[in-house]
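If your schedule permits, I should be very grateful for your opinion on a structural question. Kindly check, if you would, that the fold set down in the tokens agrees with what the sequence suggests. Thank you for your consideration; the sequence and its tokens are set out here:
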Amino acid sequence: MRWALVVWIVVMIGLHQDIWNWTNKTLVFGFLPMGLAYHLFYALLASATMWLLVRFGWPAYLDELESESE
């Protein structure tokens, strides 16, 4: 699972470089520029990515060390 998370992070880094939207003047929903809509989608995707990282990539030994210190 960790390799899948690493690959996903590399994909997210690639998606963050949105050079294809620099000259796009399309309006989403009639008022939202495409670049801003893309970044809104990207922010939601980044939040889901962080949840995945914490859920599946968090090292178990860190929780064990916390339990032992109490």
About this structure: The mean pLDDT is 88. The beta strands are 27-28, 32-33. The CA atoms of residues 28 and 60 lie 43 Å apart.
